[in-house]
Amino acid sequence: TALRFEANNLDKTKLGPAMEKCGKYLPDGGDNVRLSPEQIEQVRKFAQCMRDNGATNWPDPEPDGTFKTGSGSGINKDDPAVAAALEKCRAGMR
Fold first, then answer.
1. N or C: which end of the chain has fewer CB within 10 A?
2. Is 66 helix (H, G, I), strand (E, B) or coil?
3. Bridge partner residues of 82 (DSSP)
4. Which residues pair with 4 in a beta bridge?
């Protein structure tokens, strides 16, 4: 299942070269992939898992499966509760 996050806080000068070098390891070479209904449901379950495990304001996914977690979203990625929820919920998706 693909998880997608906004790239707002990434250094764009490093992102492009990194994607060029590493994109070959992504499904379809990193091109935007349309998620199946099953994958969208899995991403929704991930969002609920995040809320159930301490990231209470974690958003539902957008229709394309992305999460709006960038600046202004109310998500503090440095919050220990968010980090713990991410670890638990990612493990549950494997």
1. C
2. strand
3. none
4. 66
CA-to-CA distance for 80 and 37, rounded, in angstroms?
Answer: 31
Low-confidence ranges of the chain (pLDDT < 50): 1, 3
For residue 83, give Cα distances in angstroms to 8, 65, 76: 18, 20, 9
Q: CB of 5 within 8 A of CB of 66?
A: yes
**What is the sign of the dihedral through the CA atoms of 40, 42, 46 and 48?**
positive
From CA 92, how far away is CA 48, in angstroms rounded?
A: 12
76: left (phi over 0), alpha (psi -120 to 50) or beta: beta
Given this model, what pLDDT does residue 30 score?
Answer: 61
- Which residue type occupies 3? L
Q: pLDDT value at position 1?
A: 43
Return d(Cα 76, Cα 83) in angstroms, integer: 9
